Amino acid sequence: MKKVYLAGLVVTLITVLSSCESLDQKAAKIHNHAFTIDTHVDTPYHLLDKDFDIAVAHPFVEGGSRVDFPRMKEGGLDGIFFAAFTSQRERTSENILVARSKADELIDSIYAACQKNNDLAEVALSVEDGYRLEKEGKRAIFIGLENGFPIGKDILEVERYFNKGVRYITLCHTSNNDICDSSTDKDGAEFNGLSSFGEEVVPKMNDLGILIDVSHISDSSFFDVLKLSETPVIASHSCARAVCDNPRNLTDEMLVALAENGGVIQMCILDDYVKAPDTTTVGYQKELDLHARYRNASKMSKEEEDKLWDEWRQMQIDYPKDKPTVADAVDHIDHIVKLIGIDHIGIGTDFDGGGGLKDCVDASQMMNITKELLKRKYSEEEIAKIWGGNFMRVFTEVEEYAKNQKMALN
Ligand SMILES: [Zn+2]
């Protein structure tokens, strides 16, 4: 009896082990075949630190960096959007100039990092560049501008950023700016959607071939953009509000409208967007306090704001959160797919800007998302759409529209 039992156990173990292995192999195969892209990380801030070498694989530590070229490769990630992020400050002409030079500095640092390591990565400016670099075995580094604040009210700046290689603009950040209302401004709406300047920015982006990123913008701004844009839009890093009630996430009504627009939502893996936080911990109270102070960042000096960011990093070390899991995140994908189908969902982690899960801490662990999708019976074709196919479809449409506009003008 015992022998039979043991033999049965061994067979079960072997079956379990081999099915685990095949899940890893299956995930690796999908990443090999598909063009995979993460549409939002804040890694450029690390590039300004001269001790940070993006060509070296960093072991993950809490509060440390989550993306570098070797970890992207390990995670089977072909492309990425590096965000040139500037925080929203009071809208004075002086502050706009400071933000502009900061955004420019971040963009220049992306070019410098890629030029220095041109055997590993290149700046990508088009869909074609992305696919070419994938074939060459190099990482494709796209540039996004997170927050339209550096544009100020100067429409010519939109084109200057296009010429600098920016391929999406997140219209605003945590507060309202001259383009539109934010989803999280402490004083609420200012324009009830897009401003009149914002109504100039959207068609300008269409004409140039810059993707419009609706992450961070208010619900009214979102619907204004959809009404005005001639091309599908993206939410570069957002989740579903029906699964996690956070103003940064999209409601079902917004998701349905996004699908009608032909656009795509790129699931974010920032804890508070994935799952409602445990509000009883000391860490949560500390975080609330820091959030409240950050809302006044627009009136802070550069030094005060830097100090706040240091406190934020320290808080993550002192009060590590019980983060949500990949399974929690994939619940958002399930919800979105059920609601609007497989063609409107992708991934934008927000690594180095707050993104990261218990079991997906950095770019090297991207395949854990793929494995969860496989467990939930998504097909290889569907997973390829999620990992990049859908986003690249939208990007292609945006490029084509701009090309046609240019031809019509000539
Ligand atoms: Zn963001």
From TrEMBL:
GO biological process: proteolysis
Gene Ontology molecular function, alphabetical: metallodipeptidase activity
Pfam families registered for this protein in UniProt: Peptidase_M19
Gene3D superfamilies: L27 domain (1.10.287.650), Metal-dependent hydrolases (3.20.20.140)
InterPro entries linked: Metal_Hydrolase, Pept_M19
Signal peptide: none
Stated name of the protein: Membrane dipeptidase
Originating organism: Labilibaculum antarcticum
Taxonomic lineage: Bacteria, Pseudomonadati, Bacteroidota, Bacteroidia, Marinilabiliales
